[in-house]
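User: I've been going back and forth on whether these two constructs are worth ordering. Before I decide, could you fold them both?

Assistant: Sure. I'll take them in the order you sent them. The first construct and its C-alpha cells:
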Amino acid sequence: MYGALQDSMTADYRSGLAGFVVIAFGLSWLCWIPAALSDVGFSSSWVRWLGYAGALGPAVAGIALTYRTRDEKGRVDYWARVTDFSRIRRRWWIPILLPYPLATLLALLCDTAVTGVGPNLQMARRVLSQPSSIPVFMIWILLLGPLPEELGWRGFALDQLQRNWSALTSSLILGFIWAVWHLPLFFVKGSYQHNLGFGSLSFWSYSVTVVELSVLFTWIYNNNARSILAAILLHFVLNLTGSLVQGSSVAEVARAMLLAAAVGFVICAWTPQTLSTFRPRDRR
C-alpha cells in the first residue's frame, strides 16, 4: 500500500512539473517565435506586445497548476508567499539586494581594465535625466520579468523539483529549463538577449549565469520560508542592474566567474540537500 501511495505521489509530481513546462513554454514561445520571425523586432509595437505577452508564460502555468493541484490551504499559502514581507528575514535583505550589483560592478571594472572601454551607461543616463520617469521605469522592470517569471519558476516549479531531488540538483535542473526558455529571445531584434548574440561568448556566459543564479534563488527561497516575494525582489535587482549598465563579453564572463565563486561558497557553507539552515516549511 505504501508503495502504491509513493508511486501516486511521484506521478503527481511528474505530471505537475511536465504540465508546468508545457504551459510555460507553450504560451511564451507561441508569442516569441512569431516575434523572432519578424524583421522589425521590438521597434514595432505589435512585436513588443508579443514580447510582453510571452513573459507571462511561467505565471500562467504556475497559477493555473497551483489552483489545479493544491487545496484551499495551498492556494492561500501561495499568495501569502507572494505578498508576505515577514517571511523575509531581516539579515537576508543584504544577499537579496547587494551581491549581484556588486558582482556586476566588479565585472565592469574588469571589462574596462581589459578592453579599455567603459560600460554602456546610456540607459542609466536616460532614466536619471528624467526623474519623473523612474517609477514607471521600475514598474515596467518588475512587470516584464521578475513578477510573472517568479510566480512560476520559484512559485511552482522549484517545489515540484525539490519533492524528489536535493535543493542543488533541483536548482541546476530548473536553471537549465530557465535558460532554454529564453532561447527565442535571442532571435528577437532589440531584446537584451539578441544584443548578446546567439552562440557568442556572451550567449554561453549568459546561459551559465542563469544556471548559477538558479542556485542562488533556491538559497534565498529556502532560507526565507519559501518566499516567492524574496525571489521576485532578487529578480528585480538582476533585471534593473542589467537594464541600467551593460558591458562587453568580458564583463559577462567575469560576472559568471564571480557568481560561480558565490555559488561555490553557498554550497560549501550550506548543505546541498537543502541549501538552507533549516528545513523549509510545508512544500505543498
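The second construct, handled the same way:
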Amino acid sequence: MRVVAKKLGQWYRKNARDLPWRRTRDPYAIWISEIMLQQTQVKTVIPYFERWMRAFPTVEALARAPLQAVLKQWEGLGYYRRVRNAQAAAVQIVERHGGQFPTTFAEVLALPGVGRYTAGAICSVAFHQPTPILDGNVIRVLSRLFGIEGNPRDKSVNKKLWSLAEALVSVPGVEPSQLNQALMELGALICLPRLAKCAECPVKGRCLALAANRVEELPALRARAPARQRRFIAFLVRRRGKFLVRPRPPEGVNAGLWEFPNLEVPLKTKDLAALARPFGMAATDPILQVRHAITNSRILLEVFQATLPMPVQPPCVWKTAAEAKRLPFTSAHRKVLEVVAN
C-alpha cells in the first residue's frame, strides 16, 4: 500500500490535467464539479462548470436562485435530478449551516443527492481528510491493481473495493487529495476500459492483472441489457411568430423543463397525423427527426407541423423564439428549437 500510494502521488503531481476545479479548495466548487462529472465527460463539463460558477459563485447564490435559472444553467447535462438535489442541498446548507459548507463527512453525506463517493471526494480534496472514493474509474484501477475477482456491483466485492480505497488513502504521509485524484486520473487517462496504456502506468510493476495478462478481463462487469428503442411524436404549432410549448410536470423525468407538445407511441405506429387529435390539433407535414440517447434508451423524436384551431389549453403557452431560448428545454427538444427558431 505504501509503495503504490507513493508512486501514485508522484505520478499525479507530474501528470495531472489542469482543470478549473483543481485550482481551488472551495468545497462548493469541488462539489459542483463532482455532481457535474457524474455520467458526463470532463471535456463536456468544463464549459458548464465555468458558466455555473459565474452565475452562482456561492452556496447562497444557488440557494436563492429561481429554479428555472438553475435548470437553464444545467440544460444539456442531463440527469436533472442532480441539479434539483444540488439546489435543495444549497438551501439546507444556508438554513442549517449558516451558508458555510459543512466540513465533516457525516454532514456532507447528509446533504440531498450526496452519496458516499461524492462526500469522500469533497472531504478529501477540499479538507484533506482521508476519506475513500469509489467511482467507475477507481473501481477499474483497484480491480486490476489488486486482482479483484467478481462483479464490482455485488455487495461483497464492492465492500472489498471500498476497503482497499480506504486503506490507500489512509497510508501515513499520503496527501488524501492527491491520492484520490490520482486514482481518478489514472482511470481516466491510463487504466482505460479498453486498450489500457499499461506501459505508461506508474504502478505497473505492482499490478496483479497485468502480471497475469488479465487486464482486459477485469473488472468483471456483467454485460448491460441492450438499449431500449423508444419513439416520440412532437407537434410544432406556430402562430404570429410564436411557438406552442409546455413545461414538464413538476415531478418525474425532466421535471420543470420545457418541450413541444408530444407523446410516446409504439415503434410501429403508422397513422401519425391522427395522434394530434387528442391535443385538438391537425398535423400536416413531417419536419425533422431527432435521435437522442439517455442511459439505456435510444429515442427517435419525429416532429410534425401542426395547426391548432381551438384555444390553447394549459399547460401549453405561446412563446417567441427569443423567449423559448431563455427557457430550459429537454435536450431532444432543444435540438428541435435550434432548427425551427432560426
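Notes on the second construct follow. The radius of gyration is 24 Å. The mean pLDDT is 95.
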